[in-house]
């Protein structure tokens, strides 16, 4: 890169070598204070140095990763793994559960080119002062969250502030889908004491979060209370600096209060640097866009045959993919991305890995019982001793609340528990927080609980949240 040459796989292998050097030797090898000297050392100093304390078996592997000439390095990550295994005399496999999950969960975003272009046009218009409000609708598993993740990433690259809210199927208070959004927006604006008091209707601990001793909002009629709140939220977004993208997921579970606030902001968004993007399952809330004035509709359909094939190649590789496998994937998933990933995962587990899929006869059916069976199958991969905490987490919501979870399950080691659930592809990380990788998983856990058990869990979670809140304020 310093020489201005093309960036290739060899560049990544050199970067891996630098990380390995710091881990194995214990320090960065060069002086970072002098930019000119740093570049000279990077280009000319051979690593590892003769005086570095390093296992002699690892020295040739590290030296090849850090070779100055790209052609002198390993040709691939596979070759690097095999060289390391040979040097240490240990059996390493290139494909582990973790690496397989990385291929499945981080496969390139396939298709949706027109949808991305349309929504990014809305973001660019907002940057010029004319925002908008859109609803992304589609059936469960069709890729709404993945599309919104893609828009979020592209917006962040442009310097846009992204705020996110999630509606809950059960136990959501009025305006709960807006709570995180309003909380973070309030932290980015200068608000009067009266506005903070009014915003307590959405964020009850707003005064504490902002370190403000705020009195109760003045008493007004019930009709005026709602109008006052809508105006306060509008002013909150008018006070934001820069362009703001608000993403609200699963609006089929949002209450009338939350939808009324969305409609109010949708009305003023064209005069602000504000984009509102919501998602909903249109099979559960048909015509939701007609309930909220100012929302434009983007309906997300299933993947086409070409898109199914492209996503399959991205996960499996064209060397392994066979015509009969493509036919199986099309037949079993019917273009639903969630099911496509699940079918590939099932085939990989049955075939001894992603590459092993190509060496075994294909089953006639994979999805007997449909999506529910696949969701239950994924949940069943969680170790039995991790299941009680997972059920509690499902009651709490899609995002994992580590404080509540640890209070109810003090016996659980959270890092181990999250690693176990992530290995089963039930949890993943977004915005530095653990969450259920798809809300279908959380819903299925709750649906499979006996009614009495579910009530007891809700009661225990509520009591724990209440006691933690009292402990925090006292």
| Number of strand elements | 7
Broad structural category: alpha/beta
The helix fraction, in percent, is: 40-55%
What oligomeric assembly is this protein in?
single chain
Helices, by number, come to 22
Low-confidence stretches: none
User: What's the Cα radius of gyration?
Assistant: 26 Å
CATH top level of the largest domain?
Alpha Beta
Distance between the termini: 56 Å
Instruction: State mean pLDDT (0 to 100 scale).
Output: 88
Largest sheet: 5 strands, parallel
List SSEs in N-to-C order: HHHHHHEHEHHHHEHEHEHHHHHHHEEHH
Shape: globular
Quickly count the domains. Answer: 4
CATH architecture of the largest domain: 3-Layer(aba) Sandwich
Query: Considering the protein shown, what is the CATH homologous superfamily of the largest domain?
Result: P-loop containing nucleotide triphosphate hydrolases
Strand order of the largest sheet: 2-3-4-1-5
CATH fold title of the largest domain? Rossmann fold
In terms of DSSP E residues, the strand content is: 5-15%
